[in-house]
Recover the amino acids of this structure.
């Protein structure tokens, strides 16, 4: 009996130590980034005040990928039409709004008003 107790205690201690060990750093899964921001520039425009405004590809929430998939805008000329005029609304903290109008010609002509929102600041 005296020989069995130390073996049992050693086995129990070893099992407890092995069960509590953490995975090494390279074995842990990396955090999932659902929609990374794409910094590449798709369109460049200059407004009436001389501001250079770029449209980046972005992701599904902001940028060109948002326009294309969510609002069905396929050409930079739509954005440039609104950005060529003066700022319609400025909050003083870098958020600029430009109003625009798109006209569809053809069998069923239609007119759509839209707003282009620009974050024009060095830091957001």
């Amino acid at each position: 009996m005296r020989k069995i107790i130390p073996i049992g205690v050693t086995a129990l201690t070893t099992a407890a130590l092995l069960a509590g060990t953490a995975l090494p750093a390279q074995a842990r899964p990396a955090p999932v980034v659902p929609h990374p921001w794409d910094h590449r520039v798709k369109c460049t425009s200059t407004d009436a005040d001389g501001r250079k405004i770029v449209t980046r590809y972005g992701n599904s929430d902001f940028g060109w990928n948002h326009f294309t998939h969510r609002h069905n805008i396929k050409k930079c000329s739509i954005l440039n039409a609104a950005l060529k005029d003066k700022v319609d609304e400025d909050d003083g903290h870098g958020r600029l709004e430009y109003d625009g109008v798109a006209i569809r010609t053809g069998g069923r002509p239609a007119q759509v008003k839209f707003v282009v929102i620009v974050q024009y600041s060095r830091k957001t």
